[in-house]
Amino acid sequence: MVISRQSLREQVRELLMRRIGRGEYEAGQRLVEAKLAEEMGISTVPVREAIRELAGMGVLGFEVHKGAWVREVSLTETIEALQLRSVIEPLAARLAGEGMRRCCGALRESCGAIVAAARARDFVGFQEHNQAFHRTIVEASGNGTVRRVWLSLAFEVRTRVILDFLAARDPVAIAMEHEPIVGAFEAGDVEGAAGLLATHSANLVGYLEEQREAAGLRGSPWESSHG
User: Fold this and answer.
1) pTM across the whole model
2) Is the pLDDT of residue 106 over 90?
3) How many angstroms separate the CA atoms of 129 and 28, rounded?
């Protein structure tokens, strides 16, 4: 596999996150820089940089002389990330303003794909289309800091955790929450869309907190931030 020479660090980072999100790398699996670099046909430098960045984001564990491994992302961390998303994405929508109308075609396409994936119980597809939907809104803000903070939340990986713990819920109903967001943007109601984005994240937080309490996960070893 050969990766384009442009923005190698970012491309490696995103590739690794996609693989983790799809379950191609399991929790605890070690990632060897030299092996990854050889596979991608690049030097070890961007691979090392991407791994260090993912470690900083909490996606990978890392120790000097021991290397990197895939962390098990905890439910509590995911809830905290969603709480932050409920603030960041409404802000992104407001910053984009009327410019969001230019993105409605892409949002509508992603929305349809999310619902289709939910109906097929294709959770990998759900994860990828959901990420595209929310990323479109963040990118439209034109604010580099908002984008960096949102990317650091690593929802490529966390969406799988969310779906695992929403097994008792209707994934189609969750997917359908994206529809009114697109409708509000199409109508030019940016403030309404911002409110719906906040509610969407808050709903997921509520569902996940119920699951955490029901499973008695609060404070358990599984919830350790060290995974």
Assistant:
1) 0.82
2) yes
3) 26
